[in-house]
Design goal:
Blueprint: E1 19-25, E2 32-38, E3 43-48, E4 58-64, E5 69-76, E6 84-87, E7 92-95, E8 101-106, E9 111-117, E10 122-128, E11 133-138, E12 148-153, E13 158-164, E14 169-175, E15 180-185, E16 188-193, E17 198-203, E18 207-212, E19 217-221, E20 227-232, E21 237-243, E22 253-255, E23 260-265, E24 270-275, E25 280-281, E26 285-286, E27 291-297, E28 302-307, E29 312-317, E30 325-332, E31 335-337, E32 342-350, E33 361-366, E34 370-373, E35 378-379, E36 381-382, E37 387-396, E38 402-410, E39 419-428, E40 432-438, E41 448-457, E42 469-474, E43 479-481, E44 485-486, E45 488-490, E46 493-501, E47 508-516, E48 525-533
Parallel strand pairs: 31-39
Antiparallel strand pairs: 1-29, 2-3, 3-4, 4-5, 6-7, 7-8, 8-9, 10-11, 11-12, 12-13, 14-15, 15-16, 16-17, 18-19, 19-20, 20-21, 22-23, 23-24, 24-25, 24-26, 27-28, 28-29, 30-32, 32-37, 33-35, 33-38, 34-37, 36-37, 38-39, 40-41, 41-46, 42-44, 42-47, 43-46, 45-46, 47-48
Amino acid sequence: MVGLLSFIALPLRSASAQSVVATIPIPPGTGLQNIVSNPVMNLLYVGAGGCCPSSGPATVYVLDGATNTFVTAVTDPSSTGGQVGWNPNNNEIYLGSTSGFITVIDASTYLVTKHIPVAGCPGSVAVDAASNTIYSNSQCCPNGQCDELAVIAGSTDTVTTYIPIGGVAGQLYVNPVSDRIYAEASNDIRVIDGLTNTIIDTIPGLSVVGVNPTLNQIYACSPGCPDLDIIDGVTNTVMATSPLPGCCANDANANPNTNHLFVPISGLNEVLVIDLVTNTHVGPVPVDASPVGAAVDSLTNTVYILNSGARTVSVISDAPVPATTSTSVTCFPTSVAVNQATTCTATVTDTSPTPTLPTGMVTFFSSASGSFTPPNPCTLGPTSSSTSRCSVSYTPSPGTEGPQTITATYSGDLTHQGSTDTTSLLVTQRTTSTTVSCSVAFLTDHHATPCTATVADTSPGTPITPSGPIAWRSSGKGTFSPNPCTLSGAGGTATCIVTYTASPGKPLPQTITGTYRGDTDHSGSSGTTPITAP
């Protein structure tokens, strides 16, 4: 089997919903061995053939992962066939056989380009894309050579060395991240260092069925099929055991984006799905007869199950369920006048068990008329490994005095669900100040003076021209004309003028008062000035 070759930088999630979304039929022919994914071209390769000379001819069935259809079959009449691998470095397909060589196929033209002579019968093939190396195990032994592993350079397609494994060869898997090869030998697992081509450890009494480079785990079945063992790739020891409802097939595979392991159970015609975070079963998924292998395209979160009995491939969707989030919104100041800005901040937090950084946009809404700046929505920026934040300025429009509700809505991203929150904002009238002045400070009886009231908008933000009447009164006996007077002005100030006429009598100190009662967007205010008049 080829190792997992391509991963996308998505966070590890355990939640997803699995379902068979399509079935790809494979034409009649030789026995189906394994399936591998070419995520670059969204293609699948199914190796076919067998361990016996009568099993041939060797065949690679090519399937289209985009349309879920059969594309073509590539045959090599001189080979009995076996398992298949794909090398992204040279875009070549390698097909094992019991014929003493590996067939090389150009994945662009689907033409057989060469045979690589290999001692024994190299039925099992695994590709290490990181080191551009192909490995082959002799699975059956018409010439007696079944206890060594062939190492092939992908740059030249030639055998560079053989590694004795000390036992009858079985399945073969590669971890391209750790450069470790896991070769089955007489129901033991040999751990091989890909740099030195030497055996560095043996995991006894188990048969390898898969490798997970992302988590650095090896998956193996125990004799008698009671369970699946999950092995730590650092210590080469069993770290967890998951019971199985039946015997697992040769190829188990994991989706690195969901942390789901797909284990074909051939006797039950189903695929067991194991959550590798919690080590719990989240399947099974029913498939066609005799599932024998699983391939994963992590770019599309699609799992392909090879069913040898039905000669089909079950296409399973394993799209991650985006992580939950919470959004909180605050505005400061919490109370502003119309035409005065407040800063509203949205904080988005990943609330899942394995939190990652939310990205994307937050859109703000208000329950009344107003404007958000800079452009709404705003783009989140990180504040921690699992929290992001962005802010906008909100200015309530004139005429919207009273309580308002500000809503912040996070739209989510590829790995996060959306969420929303609200906060209350109190919007008030703008404050004013009123000043009063008269042209003269001393009046004799029956004389008059003009008096002016000036009302100024004093709140922060963009001022509004005050409007409405000014009511006048005196602490003495004089009269005002007109009373009230009507403000006029521009910008943040407005004025009006009246004439104050003194009554007959002895001049005494008095106070002239002008009172502004306010308008829709302004609160009232008053001002005074002293005068001496009868």
